[in-house]
Design a protein that fits this description.
Layout lengths: L2 E9 L5 E8 L7 H11 L5 E2 L23 E9 L11
Antiparallel strand pairs: 1-2, 1-4, 3-4
């Protein structure tokens, strides 16, 4: 059974991007299509989420201005991976 690589990014108010990912367990062996549908159903406008609510690491830059910079992260993609699980987020 393959694990799931969940890739996401943070885009600050100046459009600078910081990319990251976590590897999640897939105990029910769901397909990528099923997982993508599940994830998109939980996203804000099908694209954004708050990393802390999903128990994922924040990708904010060292200088964060809450007046100018958004507080959400952006879903990028999912894929199968053989990398070991490094996160226990309940998103899948």
């Amino acid at each position: 059974m393959a694990n799931i690589k969940f890739s996401y990014l943070y885009r600050d108010g100046g459009n600078y991007k910081k990319y990251g990912y976590v590897v999640l367990d897939n105990p029910e062996n769901k397909s990528l299509e099923q997982l993508a549908e599940l994830i998109r159903s939980k996203l804000i406008y099908g694209e954004w989420f708050y990393a802390n609510e999903w128990q994922l690491p924040d990708l904010f830059f060292s200088h964060f201005d809450p007046y100018y910079d958004p507080t959400w992260h952006e879903f990028e993609s999912i894929e199968y991976t053989n990398q070991p699980v490094n996160c226990s987020s309940p998103i899948v």
